[in-house]
Amino acid sequence: MWPFFEQSLNRYRDLETQLGDPAVVGNRALYTRSAKEHGALARQIKPYIEYKKVVEDLAQAEALASAETDPEMKQYAQQELAELQARRTSLQSRLEDFLLTEGDTFESIIVEIRAGTGGDEAALFAGDLYAMYSHYARDQGWKIEEISFSPGEQGGYKEVVFSVTGDDAFLQMRYESGGHRVQRVPKTEQQGRIHTSAATVAILPEPDEVQVDVQDKDIEWETMRAGGAGGQHVNKTESAVRIWYKKGTPDEMEVKCQDERSQHKNYDRALRVLRGRLYERQQQKLHQARADQRRTLIGSGDRGARIRTYNFPQNRLTDHRINLTLYKLDAIIAGEAGELIRALRDFDKNQKLGRTTESA
Q1: Domain 217-289 in CATH 2.30.42.10
Q2: Which of 40, 187, 223, 232 has the fewest CB atoms within 10 Å, counting from its CB?
Q3: Please, what is the angle between helix 3-19 and helix 71-100, to 10°?
Q4: What is the 3 state secondary structure string of the chain?
């Protein structure tokens, strides 16, 4: 029933054997890679091992419940049966969630929000999106870390990049990539006209060195003086870092980070963003290759597609991918996005598992 998890389980056991091999233990680089892959697999394998055990216990409990004649013991067996059935359902749902990520697990994600068309109003909207995701993340008990930001002239952000770390952060946030459109009366509008502005969001899973290996030979980097607010420090210290990946080739990619006072921290943060963008590029190629087999591009992470409209005068949010409209925009902007995120996850899960809405 779960061929993907059986393959992962076999790999997990192979790695356990490797980690006990003196030849591997003596090779620091190989041991580190194997240990990281083993740890990444553990998060999906442990629920699968528990699921298999619950299925075995369930078969025994069903046999006992049907064979037991003593009323008291039969009631006990039926109670145990109900508990095991609930546990099996919970574990099965969790394993199905793993399938949504096509096998990859991540401890954290990088979120990039950029103001689009609309000038100052677009920057203010980007700030609203940042606040919305921040409130939701904190309500989930996740950790937020700012990586870089560029403030708008009237508030908000031209661009803000931050990381989110916590259980299921990638599973829940992965559907937010794309174009977000806002319709409202800007604060600077004196005649009460509704304006339309936009921002783009990119959710980048933060892979480790095993999932995306960035070779020293493929990158160049330089330091420079940071620009913008920050006092005398930014004018005197070359703490900002720019990294180029495969400079001068069609695959070239550039990342800059300047918001930390430490050059070392800026370099590490820029490298984290680079890994996330490289992983996104890999996934985009996979999704493009599979596009003719998919009935929807939900979850593809296509940041160029308009996915959602936020209409403030009508307190309405519409997600165009799943034709969902909610008249609680004020609550969602305040961080109460659970209903929206669950709807997106359920829709994607049902399609990937071949379910119809009625049978789900």
Answers
A1: no
A2: 232
A3: 80
A4: CCHHHHHHHHHHHHHHHHHCCHHHHCCHHHHHHHHHHHHHHHHHHHHHHHHHHHHHHHHHHHHHHHHCCCHHHHHHHHHHHHHHHHHHHHHHHHHHHHHHCCCCCCCEEEEEEEECCCHHHHHHHHHHHHHHHHHHHHHCCCEEEEEEEEECECECEEEEEEEEECCCHHHHHHHHCEEEEEEECCCCCCCCCCEEEEEEEEEEECCCCCCCCCCHHHEEEEEECCCCCCCHHHHHCCCEEEEEECCCCCCCEEEEECCCCCHHHHHHHHHHHHHHHHHHHHHHHHHHHHHHHCCCCCCCCCCCCEEEEEECCCCEEEECCCCEEECCHHHHHCCCCHHHHHHHHHHHHHHHCCCCCCCC
Sheet holding 219-224, edge to edge: 219-224, 240-245, 253-257
Mean pLDDT of the chain: 82
pLDDT for 319 beyond 70: yes
Domain with CATH 3.30.70.1660 in the chain: 108-210+297-352
- Over 60: is that where the pLDDT of 205 sits? yes
* Residue in this structure with the two tokens 């990088």, named with its chain if needed: 110
Give the C-alpha separation, 132 to 126, whole Å. 10
- Residue range 34-56: mean pLDDT, rounded: 87
- Would you say domain 108-210+297-352 falls under CATH 2.60.120.380? no
pTM for the model stands at 0.70
Find tokens 């939900």 and name the residue.
298
User: Are the C-beta atoms of 110 and 147 separated by less than 8 Å?
Assistant: yes
